[in-house]
Each structure stands twice: as structure tokens, then as C-alpha cells.
Amino acid sequence: MYAYFLLLETSTIILGMNLIVCLGNPGKDYENTRHNVGFMFGDVLVKALSLNKVGNKFKSRMYSGLVESEKVFLIYPNTFMNLSGEAVQLIASFYQIPSQNCLVIYDDIDIEFGELRLREKGGAGTHNGMKSIIQLIKTQAFPRLRVGVGPRPEKWDLADFVLSSFTTDEQKQLESLSKKIIEPIQDWVKGDFNLAARTLHSN
């Protein structure tokens, strides 16, 4: 698919463009925490897809490149988790990216550690970053890759758990797990969500 550019006064429409949103909190204090697994997986994708750093735009740290001739933007929102929708709304509105072309990668405490689930749409569950995105782009109809970081221990407060650090063993497992998303993401960028889901869930 070729990318055609239509310049407007307030926005730019790029047909055939995809947005990957990696959720987390900015800053060293949050590195290696469960809530930042989206950032961790984003780092793997930036390298694997040979994306180039654009800089800080749309309240995000932003990368871009071509994957199988398809334009891809990848962002790490700088807004902190609970306001992630602000960054997504800004870039999606500016480039007029349809919701089905926006894939969000985020942590999920409601599924077992190490599980990966790719879905075309759905609710936010207990995730405040997803709640913010759904509220501001006004739809639940966008794909998402959920990375299991649960279950939350019974006596743990939710906020404390998602901001807790991974163990050394969990870090090693995540490094291996993150590599499994590369091929499915490439399939999704090429426009084949069903193939992406089959590839991911067969691994």
C-alpha cells in the first residue's frame, strides 16, 4: 500500500499509516515497574522495526519509520499513565488516523504474568491509561495488545502493585516474551489483524 499525503491547515492525512501506542510512566523512578511494560515492549519494537526518533511531539516521545512500505509511528506518552489519552488524541486527530489503525500495548493485572492477548476492541477493565484513551478518542474500537503482569496478590493495593518492580526472573521472561510480538506486529501493520492474532497466539 502506498502512502499518499494530503496537507490541510490543521491536520495531515496519511493513508496507510499506523500508530503504535506504548503505555507507561516517564522517568527513571518508573523503569522496570509492571505499569511500564508497554514502554519495555516499545523499546524492542523500535529496534526490531528500525524506527527513527522524531523527538518530543504530541505530548509523546515519538518514533517513525516504514514497515513493509507502511508508515508507522510509535509513541511513548509523556503525560503519565492516567492522561495517556491526551497524547493519543493529539496525534490521531492531527494525522486523522482511524481507530482501527491505532494499536495500544499495555500491562494487564487481570491476566496471568507472561500471557499475551491481542484483541480488535474492548473495554478498559481496571486500566486508567486505557480509560483515558477511550474517553478522549470516543471509541473502544481499536486493537490492543495486553501483556499479563498479574495476578495481584490479595492483600496488595492496586496502585502499589502496578508500580512495583519486576523480579530478576520476571525480567528475563519478559525479554523473551517481548520478542514474540515482533512478527504479529508486522502482520498487523500490513493490514492482516487475523494473521497477527494467529501468529501471536500460536507461539
CATH superfamily: Peptidyl-tRNA hydrolase
Using the 3D structure, state the CATH architecture: 3-Layer(aba) Sandwich
The CATH top-level class label: Alpha Beta
Number of strands: 9
In which order are the strands of the major sheet placed? 4-5-6-3-7-9-8
Give an overview in words.
- The chain is of the alpha/beta class and 203 residues long.
- The protein has a single domain, classed as Peptidyl-tRNA hydrolase (Rossmann fold, 3-Layer(aba) Sandwich).
- The chain has helices spanning 37-48, 84-95, 128-137, 158-162, 168-179, 182-189, 193-202; strands at residues 5-7, 12-14, 17-22, 52-57, 60-67, 70-77, 102-112, 116-119, 144-150.
- A hairpin with a 4-residue loop joins strand 1 and strand 2 (12-14).
- The chain is globular.
Quickly describe the structure.
This protein is an alpha/beta fold. Helix content is 34%, strand content 28%.
Topology:
Layout: E1 5-7, E2 12-14, E3 17-22, H1 37-48, E4 52-57, E5 60-67, E6 70-77, H2 84-95, E7 102-112, E8 116-119, H3 128-137, E9 144-150, H4 158-162, H5 168-179, H6 182-189, H7 193-202
Parallel strand pairs: 3-6, 3-7, 7-9
Antiparallel strand pairs: 1-2, 4-5, 5-6, 8-9
Protein traits:
about 200 residues; alpha/beta; Rossmann fold; two-stranded antiparallel ribbon; 7 helices; 9 strands; about 35% helix; disordered N terminus
